[in-house]
Amino acid sequence: MKLNEKIICADGFAMSVQANANAYCEPKHDNAEKYEAVEVGYPNAYEALLASYAEDEENYTGTVYGYVPAQVIVDVIAKHGGTVTGELPNGIPYLKAI
To answer: Is 69 left (phi over 0), alpha (psi -120 to 50) or beta?
Structure first.
C-alpha cells in the first residue's frame, strides 16, 4: 500500500491525507474512485476546521483525524493558500497555490 505524500500549503501548513482499507475513511477500501471522507494525520499546527475530528483533543499535532469530509480538506487547503506539494486521495480536488 502506497501512502500519499504529505500536503504542504503555501503558508507552510502541512498534513498527511490518506484513504485506503486501513485508514479512517469512506469508502473504506483501497483505490476508490472517489472518497467522501478521509484520514488526516499529524498536521504541523492546530487547525480549527479539523479540531472536531481529532482523536486526541489534547495533542492536535500528534494525532490522527478520522472521517474528515472531503469538503473540509478542500476548505483547509484553501484557507492556507493552496497546495504547493503533496498528494490527495481520489475525488478531492487540488487547489494549487498561485
So the answer is: beta
